[in-house]
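Entry:
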Amino acid sequence: QVHIVESGGGLVQPGGSLTLSCLVSGSDFRFYGIVWYRQVPGKRDEMVATVTAGGGTVYAESVKGRFTASRDNEKNMAYLQMNSLSPEDTALYYCQNVDGRGPGTQVTVSS
């Protein structure tokens, strides 16, 4: 059974940084890409970043240059390093692979 869980969210001031983690178990983690999404009530979920099975990355224009996605296949973990955060980045962030998604971790950017 696949289990995906995110962690690392929280409250941060504008300009601050956070690193989100995504732990995947019960899946052939190394063979699949990981996609990070963010969810804001009343809006369509936004793809934030993708890290492919080979480690390649793709970013939304809104986060390019500020966010960095990575993965550690030995630990079945994916990461999203977020810098220069602004209130517009406030959202529930979740990771997803071919087998499913996690419940998400809340990121709130506010002074």
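Residues 68 and 81 are 5 Å apart (CA to CA).
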